[in-house]
Hints:
This protein is mainly alpha-helical.
Amino acid sequence: MRRLTKRERIAARNKPVTIFLSRDVLASFKATGKGWPARINAALKDWLRTHSPVLRSNEALA
């Protein structure tokens, strides 16, 4: 059995989506270098920790 690539491991736990961000927000994250999508994800998770999202019963925060 072959090992999964990094991209395959990430795809197994993340769901691709389309999101519209303002140009300045996107430029700021991209300016931080490689890994900026992960930092956007971390910023969104941090926001969720301090706010009460409405989740459906089959959804959970990782």
